[in-house]
Design brief:
Layout lengths: L5 H15 L15 H8 L4 H7 L2 E12 L4 E8 L2 E8 H4 L1 H8 L6 E10 L5 E12 L15 H6 L1 H7 L1 H23 L3 E2 L5 E2 L11 E4 L4 E5 L4 H9 L4 E9 L11 E10 L3 H20 L3 E4 L2 E4 L5 E4 H9 L9 H10 L10 H12 L8 E4 L11 E2 L2 E5 L1 E6 L2 E8 L4 H16 L10 H8 L5 E7 H9 L19
Parallel strand pairs: 3-5, 6-10, 14-15
Antiparallel strand pairs: 1-2, 1-4, 2-3, 4-5, 7-9, 8-9, 10-11, 11-20, 12-13, 15-18, 16-17, 18-19, 19-20
Length: about 500
């Protein structure tokens, strides 16, 4: 049987009294015509007399966050989706019965207010209440105003309370859809078509990642929650949809930290007759446009760094950046054994499935990645870690691929897409060999995708951007859990 605190018992008794008086404690429809921020923005500069003469009527609704109860007149504030606004209520304006109803209200209750705008002696925009409507009785008290939910884990578990008490959490929650809308608008204006592809897959592919595995009872088969949307989107290029994108959830059964959550949101797009350079331009456009539309500037402060997101971003080859930091030139002819020796000398563990390119990438991750602060397109990834990208025609050890790095983190990944079905088949076969050597992130053989390429896929560029990290960057949030409304959490009893 549930147990309740003294405060909770008092609130439940108040709910019962409301029922007895003919008022539903949990309310009904209420027509809202105005919001706090809009009211303040529009009328803040008007004087007391000007507002009095205007006699502007407004109707708002929100949660009571502050009450100063006095004799026959009181002040309280409510919070709606855009912020807080003060309410003045007096027995002379609403009558004794309604004023008594108000005086039984608690912080956390949701109410509707109809009234006229006024300005207090301190210059604060206030609604003079003419009609007071009880909407919802809060049976649980809110946390203390100035402390909120101190336990960070509880903030994420009880996001609904966090959004009530934490203005920054609310700011980020409303910023995220604005960013996504900006991306959609940008691509739609370029003639891209938004599509949907399956979340459940029978073949693991499109990225190097550990999957979540589920079971389809009707067909009695195991299936993967998708780790990428790449392969089905490229099938659409084969079918003649020459510019497509999808914004959707991906699932990777991997570790959790400041930058990673097991389920996350990406935008993936593919453009026929484009290439790596075209994807750089699109990537710059998406990020810079989102930054400006959200914040009115290309400048952002993130993790102690001041970043300019206006185009054009720096472009640098992975091997050149490694040479700058370590003095090692991987462009030189070098055997795998020579590369392995260099890796061991620099404290890099060489796993069983490693080839030459894996070692190059390990040098980048260990000595370069976290040093990149300003937006930088790092291109020229080794072929071993890029099974879906075209080879560099001048040096087939490397591919036409880039990753966008900002403040030591990856924000975008793009290829000149591999459209040679013979080469693709061989790359899938090599991935299978890696799986046999213990690389459980390697792609499986997707023969249907190879067959799709055999019908002919146009030359194309493809790009993926992590939405969660982008929201972190543009809002200044330091952890991915701040930008996901319901991040993955360990159960309380574990």
């Amino acid at each position: 049987m549930r147990e309740f605190s003294e405060q909770e018992l008092v609130r439940r008794e108040k709910a019962n009294k409301l029922r007895e008086s003919g008022i539903d404690p949990f309310g009904h429809r209420f027509e809202v015509t105005d919001f706090s921020k809009d009211i303040k923005d529009k009328y803040q500069d008007m004087t007391h007399d000007e507002l009095d003469e205007l006699h502007k009527e407004v109707t708002v609704a929100g949660r009571i966050m502050f009450i100063r109860k006095m004799g026959k007149a009181s002040f309280f504030s409510i919070k709606d989706k855009l912020g807080n606004i003060q309410i003045y209520i007096s027995i002379n304006d609403v009558g004794e019965e309604t004023y008594t109803l108000f005086k039984s209200a608690d912080i956390g209750d949701i109410v509707g207010i109809k009234g006229i705008l006024m300005k207090t002696q301190t210059g604060e925009i206030t609604i003079k209440c003419l009609e007071y409507t009880h909407l919802v009785k809060a049976l649980r008290p809110l946390p203390e105003k100035y402390h909120g939910l101190n336990d960070v884990e509880e903030r994420y578990r009880r996001r609904y309370v966090d959004l009530i008490m934490n203005d920054d959490a609310r700011r980020i929650a409303f910023a995220r859809p604005k960013i996504i809308r900006s991306i959609r608008k940008y691509l739609d204006n370029l003639g891209y078509t938004e599509v949907e592809t399956p979340v459940l897959n029978t073949i693991l592919g499109g990225a190097a990642a550990k999957p979540f595995i589920t079971h389809h009872n009707a067909q009695n088969i195991d299936m993967y929650l998708r780790i990428a949307t790449e392969l089905p989107l490229k099938r659409l290029l084969v079918g003649g949809m020459d510019a497509v994108y999808e914004i959707g959830r991906l699932f990777r059964n991997e570790g959790m930290d400041r930058k990673h959550n097991p389920e996350f949101t990406t935008i993936e797009l593919y453009k026929a007759f484009s290439d790596l350079e075209g994807m750089m331009d699109i990537c710059e456009g998406i990020i810079s446009t989102a930054a400006y539309e959200l914040n009115g500037t290309y400048e952002v402060d993130f993790l102690g760094a001041h970043i300019n997101l206006a185009p054009k971003y720096k472009r640098a080859h992975m091997v050149d950046l490694i040479k700058e930091k370590t003095g090692i030139d991987f462009f030189q002819d070098m055997s795998f054994e020579d590369a392995k020796k260099l890796a061991l000398e620099h404290g890099i563990e060489v796993e069983k499935h490693f080839g030459y390119g894996h070692i190059v990438n390990a040098f980048f991750e260990n000595f370069v990645e976290e040093t990149i602060i300003e937006p930088t397109f790092v291109y020229g990834h080794p072929i071993e870690i890029s099974p879906l990208a075209k080879k560099n025609p001048n040096d087939p050890r490397f591919t036409e691929r880039f990753e966008l790095f900002i403040c030591g983190s990856e924000y975008g990944n793009a290829f000149t897409e591999l459209n040679d079905p013979i080469d693709q088949y061989e790359r899938f076969a090599n991935q299978l060999k890696e799986r046999e050597l213990g690389n459980d992130e390697a792609n499986e053989m997707d023969i249907d995708f190879v067959e799709a390429l055999e019908y002919g896929m146009p030359p194309a560029g493809g790009l993926g951007i992590g939405i969660d990290r982008l929201v972190m960057l543009l809002t200044g949030a330091e952890t991915v859990r701040e930008v996901i409304l319901f991040p993955t959490m360990k159960p309380r009893d574990k």
